[in-house]
Amino acid sequence: MTGGGGYIGVPLCEELLASGRRVRVLDLLLHGQTSAADQLERAGVEVLQGDIRDPEARRVALRGADAVVHLAAIVGDPACARDPALSHEVNVEASGALAADARQAGAVRLIFASTCSNYGRMSDPTVPITEEGELAPVSLYAEQKVQIEKALLAGENGGLKPTCLRFATVYGSAPRMRFDLTVNEFTRDLWADRDLEVFGEQFWRPYVHVRDAARAIRVVLDASPERVGGDVFNVGRSGENYRKLDLVEEIRRRIPSGRVSYVHRDEDPRDYKVSFDKIRKTLGFETLMTVPDGIAELIDRLNAGDFPDPFDPVYRNVR
Ligand SMILES: NC(=O)c1ccc[n+]([C@@H]2O[C@H](COP(=O)([O-])OP(=O)(O)OC[C@H]3O[C@@H](n4cnc5c(N)ncnc54)[C@H](O)[C@@H]3O)[C@@H](O)[C@H]2O)c1
Prior knowledge:
The chain is an alpha/beta fold. It has helices at residues 9-18, 34-43, 55-62, 77-82, 84-104, 140-154, 182-191, 210-222, 225-228, 244-254, 277-283, 291-303; strands spanning 24-27, 46-49, 67-70, 109-115, 161-167, 169-171, 195-199, 204-209, 231-235, 241-243, 259-263. It has a single domain, classed as NAD(P)-binding Rossmann-like Domain (Rossmann fold).
């Protein structure tokens, strides 16, 4: 697994170990996740700290692997916009090289972490979009995800079967925490009695809990490569599309603190409602958590002092 020390990666390692699999991680630990990496090693994961751009690191990491889960990336619109050259190297070039090396090393499947952001701004966001729907990325990050998906699905992959998973925006608490994701950020800010500025409050977006995201990957790995190879699945639940306005309301139900103002800005025009019927019907995948569950869990962890300073920049991908 690449990016196994990340927000989704650590719960995924736990999920895969629990299913009896042997797990090796290649991760640069860009965000200083050494304690998460130590925790994984103690649990039996082989952790290699290295760069997916490094051919030797890829070679060592891929040795003997039959399945590759590719999570490592420069993640999110702000992080990609800040250094487009780096994100091209990591997200596009290294992903292509990883797929080629995985094929050479004899892996039979590759799961690529893509995003529902690929749908961008839909002409009618009230009708949930399926995997067949038009891709209209509105950021460099999503453009790069679309580019890799296309290359993986159209490429000559030999015996390697790629599957692209388009994750909804992830939320929930995890060992490598991120507070730069909408649900987590809003909950933290209101919990801390801060002023919260919300833009695009009417825009729809789907959300998935981080442990459900990890379970979805395990479910895809449980299916035969013939069944899921060369295919794309949205990962989430059809009832879990929310407007930012709805998220604020859900948080407000639990904590009355903080002040919210709604502001108009044009810089994040993503507006999409997504259908998750395919993964449910094809693979029987159902999420276990809802956004209200995730908010409640997060508030409990904040109240318990599990994040001594939840505003610490280590919890963001752009510092
Ligand atoms: N979190 C979400 O809402 C979300 C939604 C859709 C898709 N995704 C995708 O899921 C994947 C994981 O995202 P995440 O939220 O866990 O983010 P994350 O930033 O926590 O994890 C990414 C990991 O990649 C590692 N990494 C970065 N550059 C590297 C390099 N050059 N070599 C080796 N490792 C490197 C980082 O150290 C980090 O551990 C990403 O591909 C992301 O695009 C995430």
